[in-house]
Amino acid sequence: METQPILARKIQKRIENSLFKGKVIILYGPRQVGKTTLVKKILESYLNDSVYFSCDEPDVRQALTNKTSNALHSFLGNKKLIVLDEAQRVKDVGLTLKLLVDNFPNIQIIATGSSSFELSNKVIEPLTGRNVEFHLYPFSVQELLSVNDQLTVQRILERRLIYGMYPEVIKASGAEEEKAVRSIARDYLYKDILMFQDIKNPEILEKLLQALALQLGNEVSYNELSQLIGVDKNTVSNYIQILEKAFVIFRLPPFARNLRNELKKLRKIYFYDNGIRNALINNFNNVDLRNDVGPLWENFMLSERIKWHQSHNQQPNLFFWRTHSRQEIDLIEEGQGKLTGYEFKWQNQRYQAPQAFQKSYPSTTVSLICQENFLDFLN
User: Fold this and answer.
1) How wide is the angle at C-alpha 125 spanned by C-alphas 315 and 13, nearest 5°?
2) Which of 110, 140, 288, 371 has the fewest CB atoms within 10 Å, i.e. is most exposed?
3) Other C-beta atoms lying within 10 Å of the C-beta of residue 261
4) Could you tell me if 176 and 317 lie in one domain?
């Protein structure tokens, strides 16, 4: 049976350790990823001394817009922990948060936003030095392991590869998983992007996402994408940046230090969630009926590794490595003065790093990560 999403989020303890230190806490993440559930869980420890506001409510937005510090304090009351959910909906929210943190240092504000680019644009300048940022992603393998044994997680691995890790999808069962992930992709994926960005052709955005989904695991050329979907290269670049800031996709640049024939210009683009990717190409077939298991596994491992690093408060540089002769390594991590490489294969097999890489980076260990040992990689 699928696990139910009652598990604690790994990021919760880090947020709680940052409370009441004189800074606004900003929690970014896409819609439906569980931000509201998480902040309400944190509020449970302050039941009599906290208050929750949804900035989707017009009266809340009005009360927080263009107000003096006294008016803000009067509205928020005497609670010491205050959550402003979907704060990007408040006009000039950064100025509002600056007034609160400067005038009422004993009050802790947690502001959430499903639209990174919009909320960050509004808070970065006013809150310089006054905020701490966190990012919430779909559930992680680590979080599943907190309430399941390793055998259970192994058993549901193929379903997670197909349907992804969004909380509503994890909570669903059987045929409901597909319905849940389709709903997220259809109803929430573009909502903030279209609301806050002047995108005149949303169908171009969808064509771009479908093209990226079909090129999963391959190097991406903005020139080729522009020709494929019929817009100029700058538009492609702009849309990709927006999709990245909206937590739909992320980019992996090439690692190039020593070899003349290492790729230096192209990049790879992955999805934060496998289910969203599969919804975009309308393919929820089982693993044994697919010809894209390799890219799916690569995408899943990369997105899970990002979650893993966040839970450990680490920020290494991430790359892929490839030569023009098509020798490649899926992931190169650069952190604490050393390099580590990983190759992702669905099936276990004998593996040795390309000789060109070994010769140029002799002190770097490269490991094969497959379905038999991925739990060690992510736990």
Assistant:
1) 40
2) 288
3) 12
4) yes
